[in-house]
Structures are given as structure tokens and as C-alpha cells.
Amino acid sequence: MDLHIIHSKITVMPHKLQFKVIHASGQDDIYRASELNHHSPLTKGWQSARFCLYPQDMVIQLETRSRLRKIQILSHQFLIPTKIEFFVGDVPDGAPLLLESARYARLGYVSLSDNEKTGYKARELKSVHVDAVGHFLKLNIHKNHVNKHNLYNQVGIIAINVIGDELRRPYDITDPDLLLDDPRIERDPALEGLFNKPDYISPLDDLAFDMYQDPEIAQIIRRLERKKQEAVLQERYDYAKRLKQAITELQKVGEKLGKMEVEKRQAVENEDYDKARLKKVQMDEYRLQVYKDLNLNDLLELTGSRHPQHIDLEPVRHYSPPTPPPRLEELPPPTIRTPPHYEEYPLPRSDSVLEVVSTKTIPSYYPFDDMPLPNQKSKSVIEPITVPAEETSKSPRPPETNRSKNNSPRTPHDSRRLPPPKLKSIKEDEEKALTLEEELPPEPENNQEAEPMSEVDLREASTAIDIFGLSLVSKAYSKTWSYREDALTAVHHQMQQMPTGNKEEAKSMLRAAIFLVKRGIDDKVYAVFRAALHLYRMLLTEFVPKHKLGKPDITSAVEKTLPNLFHKAGDTAVRNRDDAKSFIQEMASFPEVKATQTLAHECVKPFKLTLGPRHAQSRCEIVESLYQNFGLKGGLTIDNIMKFNVEGLNHNAGEVRDVIERLIKTMYKNHGAPIKDYLPPDDEKTRKNTLWRQLFEYFDQVDGKPPRTDAKKQKAEEEQKKQAEIDALQKQLQALRDMNAGKALRSDRSNGKKPEAAKVKPKGNKPTTKDDDDVSMFTVDNICIFCGERNESFTEEGLDIHYWKNCPMLKRCTNCKQVVEIATYTDHVLTECEAKSNFSKCPRCSEAIPKPEYDQHVADKACNPHKTGQNHCPLCHENISSGEDGWKEHLMGRTGCKQNPRRLLALNKPAGGAAGNKTTAARGRGGKAGSVRGRK
Q: CA 891, 896, 902, 905 torsion: positive or negative?
């Protein structure tokens, strides 16, 4: 075989095919079918005419005869058809390439969701894999889903995408004569990796890429992708890494610019040209800044390649034959009709299964639609769906009367039995393709049976199959999420309708149903998960009481399903987490479950410290909610909860420890000291740890104890205050000693004695006694200068005590707490006291009267008037004799002031305690009253 013939049989990898819409049975005046010919964020898409008849037909023509590998449909968000059928069309050899000459084979159909769950704010992107050859692709669009937004019963398609290979020459790529390892073919190591991926479809050819990318950015991304492939083949891996990072960044930029372009167009439609101009300036500045930051000229090597080697990136080199084939219109009309070449390529049967590899929910931010749209992308589970095709086509077919060379009758294209295509797994970003390992038998449209189960699944589900049958369990194992949901619903109805009487059969049905519930809880599709919870609730609240099943059956059911619920409670999806935790709380309140105490014991089992933070946090939150709702009931005790808490505090995730700490505080507030038995001892070493210190400080707060830090601070402040008072007192006492020494010196001089005589003790062998009335026995420091009492205990500290507590000539000021002489108390209050501004002097009694009482006091004239030449006592308000002796007699005598409490203490002292009145120290009063500053 000639080398160029071999290469001409090899097709390129599947890629995006160019097409144009050449026929539509109807269209809206604004949303015309020509909108489907191009893809961009501004594409408005096609809509049918208002109140049209169904089904609607649409035909697109490819640029060349191609092998179709993948079809994508982006539906409208609320003008949604219930079903779309696909037909591939081709023309016989020799016939003109016209729509009327096309013959169609039915590929199958896909069903579209009614979009009610998304609130009609997102669009559904269906991606289906096919394997067919032709020039045309026909869509048969059925009636619309009814909703409040679709006022005119229309259907709409935003975009269509076709991925496949152009067939340059009429050869079959599956020809067994074409072998890539043929020794006659020159091997190209650089292209060998590409040959190993003949079904690879680039993500850049995906419909979602062009619909949400700025066109200019999209072209740059494609150029960078090509440069990246070239760099890989040249083993320039650092350059390839830079290109990969730039592509990732540009994809985000392109989406943002696409959205800004839509907003700019909306402003133009609203004639808000200022906003449109602002958007344009923002887009240009943003685009240039991104180009500058990424250094696109350097990435694209516009100034010249840094690698001299040139490698052709085409995975296949096409060689032209020596003589080009004649054009279709130049061929002479054949005398005998021969089978067309497209019959040599396997077409799908009319009853083949159309594989839906993915169903995406993508955003709809186009502003020209008839309803408000979301601002952000909505995410949904990408679910592989297999939809059975219809048995026959509703599209009319022209009769076929031509015969082949052997004069055998021709079989119509739409009913000819052909082998089904071998579907291959395709790995795409964010998609998982369904791999069919065996050919699927033809199924009628009304057959709702799911795909066969594998041997492993059959063995695993043998118990459930014996109870519910193979058909229902097959749906529970189906790759179609709606089948799995239907299976759980069917089990729900079957369990509800089961008659009572046979307890053993009820136990078997419960075990089989729990097996399916476990699978449903682990399902990634939210609808299936909700159906499993609904079935499980019915089993525990209706089925078990109805058939009077015992605690062992309930315990077994709870123990089997709780691990799955715990795992679901740590799911990444918020609603899955919330529903799982809420259901566990609900289970705890079921009477049948509560009686077994199984759920509580399972929840408080300590988990491993290697458990993920999200799952560990959910477990702790479950225990916390159980305690808050039920307290120490239903199997919860201080012992098992605190053991769970202590283990949880060792987890390395802070959010887990926060929940445990909150639970421990709540329990201590309710139960007190027993909680401390499970914690480390409360000492200084333990409190160095922040976690334990915070807990113990909270315990002290609950117990009414001041925090240790506050107690230390308060104690330090008290000691500081006490020291300040002592210092002030010592200064006052030193002033008193100086005054006492001065008085004693003046007294000695007036008596003609030497100054040192008062401090000289007598000499001789005769012992002195305390009874001797000898002044020389005492020093100046042993005498109170106010009351004249002499005592050997009157040292520095002894005099302090005497002044504060015993001296009858002194008292504490009730306002400032200073110790002052009673004789000068009135003057002190009016002139020296800190509260002197609050007092006024009465003109009658000359005493200090509080200002709030002063007016009433003067008006009443009930006070004892102060007589001239006499002293006036501030304690008993009586007039007494003048002079110092008059004060001493009144304050210290037996018939003296009855309001002086220290007078009686002085009278009751032993006789030796005072030295009489002979050596009373002289006291002189100046203009100011003497005072001793006391403790407050």
C-alpha cells in the first residue's frame, strides 16, 4: 500500500466542526435561527414562533462530510423542550448536495429537565456522544415544558456544538488494513503520543468555553494551547509550564471580559451610553493590563522562537494524491446506481441508545432574556444519563426505489439494521464518561428497565434482589440518578403497603430496605439522598411500630446506617451536611430509637485524631445538639460525653476544639464540679496552657470566684495602697516626734535644766521601780504629748497604736479619716479637711454644719450658742472651761464628755499606766489645729 494512501486514511483528532443552519420550521423575529451559527457571550440563540405547532424541525449543514463524535445542546432557561431527537443525514453518491437529497438515520433522543429546581435561572448543557457520518444534522424539537414564564408555549436553544472529524476521502477509519504499527510507515516519535489518544477532545472545543469567553481571549488561549503542545514535543517543559499558567489565568480573564461585554451591550440597548463608554474603557484598560502582566508577546514568541527546531503539531500529515478527485458536480450521471460511500461507514440503528455523557447546569447572565438572571454560576452534580431512543422516527421519509448492483431491494435509511457504535470512554474536564463494556440490546421506548448489573453488584445485592426483585434493585444501581430515586420511592410504597402478620418477612424486608437506604445516603445526587432519608424515616416511625419489630432489629438498622450519616454530615455540600445532622437529631427523638439508646452510644464514641476536620467538627456538633436537646437522657451520661470531649480536645483542628470547649462549658454550668474530674488538675502548670486556662477561668466565673489574674492584680494594688498609707503615716509620726522633742526642750529650759537631763538615767546601785515618780525614768519618746500619759511601751509603734485607738484627746475625722485633736476638730473640718467645701460655720454655736442642713439649722435656732471666753465641745455641743486644762478635764475627767468613747478607756487603765499630772508635757496651740493623718 502506498504511504500517502495510508496517511490519507488517518483522520485528525475530534475537534469543533463549522456549520450553518439551513432550515428551521419556525423562528421568532428577534431570536432567529442564524444566531446558532456562532458562539459568543452575546449569542441570543434561537426561539420558535409563538404558539407554534410541534415538533419543530431544524437542520444544520456541516462544511464537509464528517464523522460526528459529540453533540452539545445549550437549552434556554425557561423555554425548554421536553425532548430533542437527533438524526444524521447524508446524500447518495452522485446526488447534489441539497437538503432535499438528504436521507436521515435516527440517532436517538435526550430529555431535558423542567428547570424548576433552579428557579428557571440556569441553563442545561447536554453533551451526548454519537458515532455517525454525514453532511447534515437534524433536530426534532418536541413540545415545551409548561411554566409561568413561558407565556407563548415556545421552545428555545441558546447554542449547538458539533465535534467530530472531517472525512477528506471516502475511506473507513476502522479499516483493518490500516495499522499504525505497519513497518512500511515511517514512525514519528513526536507524534506517537497523539496517536494513542484518537478520541481526545480538547476542553477548548467545548461549548461552554466559547459561550462564556471573550472571543479575543479565546483565540489567544487557543494559540497558547498550540504553543504548549509544541513546547511539550520539543521538551521545553519550563516554557510549557508558563504557558499552562497563562492559559489558566486567561480563562478567568476571558470570563470576566465576556460578562463585561454583556453588560456593555445591555447599556447600549438601554441607551445608557455613558455607562457603555465607561464599560468599554474599563475593558480596554483591563485587557491591556493583563496582556502586559502576562507578557503575551514573549509567551507567543512574536519576536522569534527561542527554539530553532520546528515541529508540525498536526497529529496526522495529509498527503494529496497525484490526481485530485473531480468535484461532485463534474461527475457524469451514473447509469447504474451504486450504494453511496456513507453506507460503508457504520451508522447507528434507529433504535440505538444515545449516551448522554454529561448534564451541566451553567449560568445564564445574558441580559436580553425575559426574566431576571443570577449573578453567579450555579453548580450541580454532573450525572451520566443514558436515555433510550424511540423505536421509529416521526419524521417523514421519501420512498426509496433504487436497487443495488445485485438488484436487491434497497432498505430505507431510517429502518436499516446496522451494528450499534462502540462507545468509548472520553475523559474531559469536570466530566466522567460512561464506559459501555458490552453492546446494549435494542430497547423499545416504553421500556424503563435500567442497565444490567455487574456480577459483583449482583452478589452484593443478592439479599435485596430476593426481596424486591432484580428490576427494582437494578434501578437502585443504575447510573441514571432518576432511576435510583425511583427505586427508593418504589421501596417506600411497597413497605407501606405490606400487610401485618408475618414478622419474619417484615424483618427480611427491613434488612433489605436498610441496605438500599445506605446506598442512597452515600449517593452524590441530592434528590437520591433525600429519597433515602424519606424512606428511612418511614421505616423507623411507621414500619417498625406497625409490624412490632424488636429492639435488636432497630439497633442493627441504626448501627448500619449511622456511619454513612456521619460521613454525609461532613460532606462538602452545605445542604447535605445540614440534612444529615438534622436527621440524626430527628432520629434521636423517635420513640423506637430512643428506647434502644443505640444512637447516643454511637455518637459519643471517641473518633480517631486522624479524622478530617470537617467530619470531626460535624460529630462534635451532633453530640452538642443531642446534649442541648435531651440532656443526660437516652444513653447520654457525664462519663461518656466527657470521655468524648477529652479525646476531641486533642484534635489538631481549632474549629473542632472550639465546639468541644463550648460543650464542656455548658456541662459545667449545668453540673458543676464533677466535670473537673475528667480534666487535668487545676494548678499553675496546667494553666500555662491557653486552652486549660480559659476553661478553668470560666469555671471560676461560674463558681463566683474572681479570676486568678484579677485576684493577683487586686492583691498587688492593695499592698501598694497599704504601703503608701504606711509611708504617709510614718511622715506624720516623724513630724509629731519633732514637735514633741521641741516641746520637751522648751519645757526644760523654762525649768532651768540642761537639755540632756530628760534623757539621763540615774546612777547607783539602788534599783529603780516603776512606782518611783521620777521623770528621769522616761524619755520624751515615752510620753504622749496630747494626754500626758507616760508608758515604757510608748515606743514608735506603741505611740502609733495609742494615737489611733486610745488617746482620749484625739478622734478620727468622719470625712477624711485623719486623726485630729478634738479641741481643733471644728477648725479642721472648716479649713483643712478634704470635704471642707461641704460645710459652713454656724454663727450661733460656731460648729461646722453640712451645707444641705445649714439653712434649716440656722432657722431652727435650736443649737447651743457658743459663749465668749469658753471652749465649745464639738462632740456634746456643751460650753466648757477655757484653756487647755478645761479641755483635758472635759475629755478625760470622770464627769467629762459623755460623747467621748475613749474617755472611759483612759479612766479604766491601771494606775501605773499614767504618770499623773505633775509632768504633763506642755502643749501650745498655734493658729492651725494639730492633726495626725490616719488610715482610711
A: positive
Please return the burial class of 551, using the count of CB atoms within 10 Å of its CB with bins 0-12, 13-18 and 19+.
Answer: middle
Residue with cell 466530566: 431
How far is the C-alpha of 289 from the C-alpha of 673, rounded, in Å?
Answer: 65
Cβ contact 554:507 at 8 Å: no
Which of 84, 35, 92 minimizes the C-alpha distance to 65?
92
Which residues pair with residue 67 across a beta bridge? Answer: 133, 165
The whole-number average pLDDT for the span 62-70 is 92
DSSP state of 378: -
Rg (CA), the chain: 52
At 54 the three-state DSSP class reads coil
Q: How far apart are the first and last CA of the chain?
A: 120
Q: How confident is the model at residue 741 (pLDDT cuts 50, 70, 90)?
A: low
Give the residue among 422, 415, 458 at the shortest CA–CA distance from 440: 422
pLDDT digits (tens, 9 = 90+) for 598-648: 888 899 999 888 888 999 999 999 999 999 988 888 788 999 999 999 988
Average pLDDT over the chain reads 75
Looking at residue 566, its pLDDT comes to 93
- Which residues share a beta bridge with 6? none
CA atoms within 13 A on the CB side of 527: 13
Across the beta sheet with 819-821, what order do the strands follow? 810-812, 819-821, 931-932
Which residues, other chains included, contact 705 with Cβ-Cβ below 8 Å and sequence gap of 6+? none
List, in order, residues 6 or more apart from 887 with CB less than 8 Å away: 809, 822, 823, 871, 880
State yes or no: pLDDT of 370 exceeds 50. Answer: no
**For residues 137 and 287, what is the distance between their CA atoms, to the nearest angstrom?**
38
Q: What's the pLDDT band for 311 if we cut at 50, 70, 90?
A: very low
Q: What is the arithmetic mean of pLDDT over 161-179? A: 61
- Residues 6+ away with beta carbon under 8 Å from 751: none
Q: Specify the amino acid at residue 912.
A: G
What is the distance between the alpha carbons of residues 45 and 58, in angstroms, rounded to a whole number?
Answer: 13
Backbone angles phi, psi at 707, to 5 degrees: -60, 150
DSSP label at residue 368: T
C-alpha cell at 690: 491557653
Q: What is the mean pLDDT of residues 59-72?
A: 93
